[in-house]
Amino acid sequence: KEQVEADNLPRSDIIARSVTILRENDFGGYTIPAKGLYPYQWNWDSALVAMGWAMFDEARAWEELETLFSAQWADGMVPHIVFHRPCSTYFPGPDTWQAGSSTHSSTGITQPPVAAISVRKIVEGSGNREAALRRAAALFPKLMRWHRWFVTARDPEGRGLVATLHPWESGMDNSPMWDEALAAVPVDPIPPYVRKDLGHVDSAMRPKQAEYDRYLTLLYRFRAVGYDPAQLYHMSPFRVSDVCTNSVLYRANRDLRWLALQLNETEAVFEIDSWLERARAGFETLWDGSAGIYRSQNQLTGTLIPAATSGGFLPLFAGVPSTDRASVLADTISRWADSVRYSVPSFDPADVRFEPLRYWRGPVWAIVNWMITDGLRSYGHHKLAERVIRDTRTLTSSSGMYEYFNPIDGAGAGGNNFSWTAAMCLMWLD
Ligand code: 9WN
Ligand 1 pocket check: which of 96, 169, 173, 420 to mutate, most ligand atoms within 8 Å of Cβ? Predict the structure, then answer.
């Protein structure tokens, strides 16, 4: 380990490499996650990447978010992918989704709502707060509409937790969290399709065919009802309370509330307060004290999902747990970290389904580490946060700015020169 750590790049190299990656993945107002593999604008990628841009080019950071919101749907939803230009290297693309706003072609589902978190970070880091607040003020009503959409379209029954209707919406596509819920989705006789992802990366690092068949089945069913949110909530054969999405939304609501106060938007503050209060009750139902982690829930069966994943630590990022509970979570993170070489694995390393190389079933993700460390720091767990940051720095320095990393041997996996990995490296230089 010392050997690898000795290879850590100096600060100036990290900056140079990260900036180069963002610039090379800049397609004019939006940043693609990685060349070839992901050629469009992804929702939560863009919001996270905007924070990276803000470290050296604030105007470009605002542009990233403004471009994302230019594709907002009339009902308030902000889609998970915006197809700004045709491209044949990704499947499923615009021809399969057949969705969008009046101006933009997009998917018909969403992703964890990071944007408001990003807006606050950019404003707080800005050298010209007044100008930054003007840019933020223009985004504010759009952010409100998106968050309101979550509450109305995805929590119509008032559970305090919003529903995720497709594994792609969770951003943690093939996480073991979704195994049972996804297995219960029947595979329809869907049109034959060719996966493009396998032309870019090894199949051992990607979701399996059985999962893709169900991802596509859901897509075609949603498309058949024109992505009407009222119908989707009731007819989707996959409906979960994802602990990651709900944590990101809770944190985003706190940051949006902060922005509302800056902008003297008093009514909005009250509205956001009601969302936060409802969600606090919802989170209580996800806590598993005996395992020391938050879980996701299958809304269709009512069961708490047994798989413990790194998403279960994200209520720390939200600021939801009490300090006692935060310490329990920190202990669980330490235990996981002790059982691998690089923290934080995306799935419990003690679980038989743990796979160190397969996407969301074990590998380390820099963005999740960023959220976890931000949460740990806010609860005063600085030593553990530093350990996670050090591990991520070692991984990115020695293996490259990969999409994700093997927690056992540190090998980079998935796409290389990855935008959000580069952005997180810039964030940690703070
Ligand atoms: C489907 C872009 C996206 C991330 C997701 C990650 C992966 C896409 C895919 O890549 O998902 O949206 O084709 O695998 O799971 O979190 O936003 O980086």
Answer: 173
Going by alpha carbons, the residue nearest to atom 7 of ligand 1 is: 171
Number of domains in the chain: 1
Ligand 1 mutation pick, 30, 37, 42, max ligand atoms within 8 A of CB? 42
173 is catalytic: yes
**Ligand 1 lined by 414 (C-beta under 6 Å):** no
Which parts of the chain sit beneath pLDDT 50?
A: 1-4, 6
Catalytic residue among 64, 242, 255, 403: 403
For residue 63, the CA-to-ligand 1 centroid distance in Å is: 22
Q: Domain residues for 418?
A: 2-427
For ligand 1, whether the C-beta of 44 sits within 6 Å is yes
- Three-state SS string over the chain comes to CHHHHHCCCCHHHHHHHHHHHHHHCECCCCECCECCCECCEEHHHHHHHHHHHHCCCHHHHHHHHHHHHCCCCCCCCCCCEECCCCCCCCCCCHHHHCEECCCCEECCCCCCCCHHHHHHHHHHHCCCHHHHHHHHHHHHHHHHHHHHHHHHHHCCCCCCCCCECCHHHHCCCCCHHHHHHHHCCCCCCCCCCCCCHHHCCCHHHCCCHHHHHHHHHHHHHHHHCCCCHHHHHHHCCCCEECHHHHHHHHHHHHHHHHHHHHCCCHHHHHHHHHHHHHHHHHHHCCEECCCCEECCEECCCCCECCCCEHHHHCHHHHCCCCHHHHHHHHHHHHHHHHCCCCCCECECCCCCCCCCCCCCCCCECHHHHHHHHHHHHHCCCHHHHHHHHHHHHHHHHHHCCCCEECCCCCCEECCCCCHHHHHHHHHCCC
CATH number at residue 346: 1.50.10.10
The whole-chain average pLDDT of the chain stands at: 97
Total-model pTM: 0.98
> From ligand 1's centre to the CA of 108, what distance in Å?
15
Catalytic residue among 173, 211, 255, 355: 173
Q: What is the pLDDT of residues 86-135, one digit of tens each?
A: 999 999 999 999 999 999 999 999 999 999 999 999 999 999 999 999 99
How many whole angstroms from 300 Cα to the centroid of ligand 1?
Answer: 25
ipTM exceeding cut-off 0.95 for this assembly: yes
Q: Ligand 1, residues 30, 32, 87, 168: which to mutate, most atoms within 8 A of Cβ?
A: 168
